[in-house]
Amino acid sequence: MGREVTHRYIDPLAQIWLTCAQRVGLRVARSPDAYAHSDGRGTLAIATDEHLDADDSLAQMIFHELCHSLVEGEDSFRTPDWGMDNTGPDHDWREHAALRTQWMLAGRHGLRDFFAPTTDFRTSFWNQLSNIASGDALADRSDRSTQHAIAALRRSDKHPWGPHLGAALAATAQVARHVPRVELWATIADARTHPSGLPAGDASGTCGTCAWNGAKCRQAERKVDAAWPACERFEPALDCQDCGACCREAYHSVEVKRRDPCRAKLGDWIVDRGTYLELRRDGDHCSALHRDDKRYLCVIYDDRPRTCRDFTNASAHCLTARRRVGLSL
Question: Which residues lie below 8 Å from residue 223, measured CB to CB, with a gap of 6+?
Fold first, then answer.
């Protein structure tokens, strides 16, 4: 006579990530017919174990798909495959953005190798992130994938992802502390913390060389030691002619004082509105803002009006503008 089975064993790591997916709003279904596919109606299909590589796991697969959803935004939950077609010209940069996001989030818990992708992007992109000269996977702020990864990271602790995604990563690291370091488990590193309270970073700079360290760090909102190594949000000195965030987000209209010395030099750039003067606009921003290849630049920068000069590089307002355009965490 056979015994009655009252419980079923579930892998604890799988349970952590199945619960995370459920709390984010996804039902995970295992299927031999899909590697990974979101149907836009709340179901995420992932291949059954026999169709995954030996260094894949259900946890890693769920985590990667959630990184795609972070890049594409909350509306992507209602679009099959997060709005990606897997073949079009935008596919690679979107995949790169998801992998940058995955790299940063996993790195906070020492899980980069454990949760590394196993697709062709492992060799063509992921492994290259550790070879960036600055050590910072977000260093090239002109790269479209970096800007979208920054936006994704800013979403990660907000609804519907937060706090569930962060909790699943923390729980994974906690489980790892009790598992013998063999096979894939041997790749897990100790989590690092930054004395400022922000996530530790990989950049080669220090708090003293970061753009956001003035009287106090504008990111941590506290005083820091200039000798501390860089945190995750480190940025070197900012070049206004590579950025243009203030022109794109801080001002829709740049007013020019009637006594501003720039009037004599700018001529047709200035429009008289009767009760005030302003720089000529192109849509909702100043017409002096041009885009050159990957960067924005002001073509009248040397003669810019006092309004622009008073907008201080690396100020709190500068940080706000850069965050709005996806250049700063």
Answer: 215, 216, 217
Task: Provide the pLDDT confidence category of residue 99 given band limits of 50, 70 and 90.
Answer: very high
Contact 74, 83 (CB under 8 A): no
Q: In the chain, pLDDT over 70 holds for what percent of residues?
A: 100
CA triplet 185, 186, 191: central angle to 5 degrees? 85
pTM of this structure: 0.92
In this structure, the answer to whether residues 16 and 96 fall within a common structural domain is yes
What integer is the mean pLDDT of 279-308? 89
Q: Is 228 within a domain? A: no
Q: Which of 142, 134, 143 is nearest to 297 (CA)?
A: 142
Q: Which structure tokens are listed for 25?
A: 């709003």
Residue 191's closest CA among 113, 126, 111? 111
Matching residue, tokens 């753009």: 211
Are 66 and 161 spatial neighbours (Cβ–Cβ below 8 Å)?
yes
Indicate whether 139 and 266 sit together in one domain: no
DSSP state of 198: S
pLDDT the model gives residue 98: 97
Residue 244 lies in a domain: yes
SS3 (DSSP) at 29: strand
22 with 169, same domain?
A: yes
Q: What are phi and psi of 281, to 5 degrees?
A: -105, 155
Range of the domain at 261: 240-312
95/167 same-domain check = yes
* Cα 144 from chain centre: 11
Domain for residue 177, yes or no?
yes
Domain presence at residue 68: yes
